[in-house]
Amino acid sequence: MSRIAISALLVALGACASDPAPPAAPAVLARSEMTQEQQAAFLAGARTRMDEAAAKVRGMAKAEIVSGMTGAVSNQTHLILQQGHGVYLEYTDAQGRLFMWYPGNKNVVSGTWKVMDTYSPPRTCFKYLNAVHGVTGQYEPNECVPPEQVIGRPYDLGVRAGDPFNLASGKIPYVKSKSDVPAWPN
C-alpha cells in the first residue's frame, strides 16, 4: 500500500473515531437520559393523572376494579418514574410473580404481586423479596397501592405486554442509573 493510500486510510479512520455517536456494543440496549427538568415535568402531571383515575375508579363496581387492576398488571412490563426511585422497569407475569430492573442494582429484584379485594377499595399488593430503597437504604418488602395508581398509571412512562427485556430470566441487560431510560426492544 502506498504512503498516500495509508495516509488517506488514517484520515478516514480518524474521521470515524471522532464521530460523536459511538457504535452500540453488542447486547447493549439503546437508551437515553431523562433530565431533571423532564422528570419534574412528568411528575408534576402525575397528580392530575392520579386524580382523573380516582374519579374513574369511584364510578366502578368492586369487580370492575379488581378486573381493571388485574388487566393492568398481568403479563405487563411497566417503565416507571417515581420520585426518589428514578426510572425503573417492572415485569409482572400472569402467575403473580414480578421482576424489577431497579437503578443501581446488579440483579433483578424479584417478588410477587396480587390484587387484594379484602381492602375497600381493592388494592394491588407487591411483595419484594430482595428490595432496598435507593434513597433510604431501607429494606422494603411490601407495598399495596390504590386502584387509581394501577388503573390510571400516573407514573408510567410506557407499558408493553409481555417481558420484552427478559427480566424473568433473573438477569438485567446492564446496571442502569436513575435517569436512564432504556429503549423498548423491537
Mean pLDDT: 82
Percentage of residues assigned to helices: 25-40%
Q: Give the ordered list of helices and strands.
A: HEHHEEEEEEHEE
Assembly state of the chains shown: single chain
Count of separate DSSP helical elements: 4
Count of strand segments:
9
Secondary structural class: alpha+beta
* Low-pLDDT runs: 1-28
In total, the number of domains comes to 1
Order of strands, main sheet, comes to: 7-6-5-4-3-2-8
Over all CA atoms, what is the radius of gyration?
21 Å
Distance between the termini: 43 Å
Report the sheet-strand fraction.
Answer: 25-35%
Shape: globular
Tell me the major beta sheet: 7 strands, antiparallel
Kindly describe this structure.
- The protein is α+β, with helices and mostly antiparallel strands.
- It has one domain (32-176).
- Helices cover 30% and strands 26% of the residues.
- The protein has four helices and nine strands, in the order αβααββββββαββ.
- The chain has helices spanning 3-17, 36-58, 62-73, 147-152; strands at residues 31-33, 76-82, 86-92, 97-101, 109-116, 123-128, 142-145, 156-161, 180-182.
- A seven-stranded antiparallel β-sheet has the order 7-6-5-4-3-2-8.
- Strand 4 and strand 5 (109-116) form a beta hairpin.
- The N and C termini lie far apart (43 Å).
- The relative contact order is 0.21.
- Mean pLDDT is 82; it is low at 1-28.
